[in-house]
Write a structure and sequence with these properties.
This protein is of the alpha+beta class. The chain has helices at residues 26-32, 41-49, 61-75, 81-84; strands spanning 6-11, 17-23, 52-57. A three-stranded antiparallel beta sheet has the order 2-1-3. The N and C termini lie far apart (30 Å).
């Protein structure tokens, strides 16, 4: 995992996307999730239900933002509920 920008998403047991998030720096973002005892209830539930994490490295933060929005619009992940209702 490098320090490039991009998008990563958590997949459930049925390979359904549970959560999509953009990253300015993959190292910083992914490194925070293993400390499960420090997570809030919603994030704990996400990590507990996730079976895999996939990521896509992109060239810029702008591309990351656009890719995140498109994935959320297309897949309407459960843990991105506040953005799924928004028309993009």
């Amino acid at each position: 995992m490098d320090s490039s920008p991009g998008v990563y998403w958590f997949l459930g047991a049925d390979a359904k996307i549970l959560y999509v998030v953009k990253a300015k720096n993959f190292k910083h973002c992914i490194r925070s999730y293993p400390r499960i005892h420090q997570l809030g209830p919603k994030t704990f539930k996400l990590v507990h239900n996730a079976q895999a994490i996939k990521c896509q490295v992109l060239d810029s933060e702008r591309e990351s933002l656009l890719s995140e929005a498109e994935l959320i619009r297309t897949h309407q992940p459960v843990f991105n509920h506040s953005l799924t209702a928004t028309k993009i």
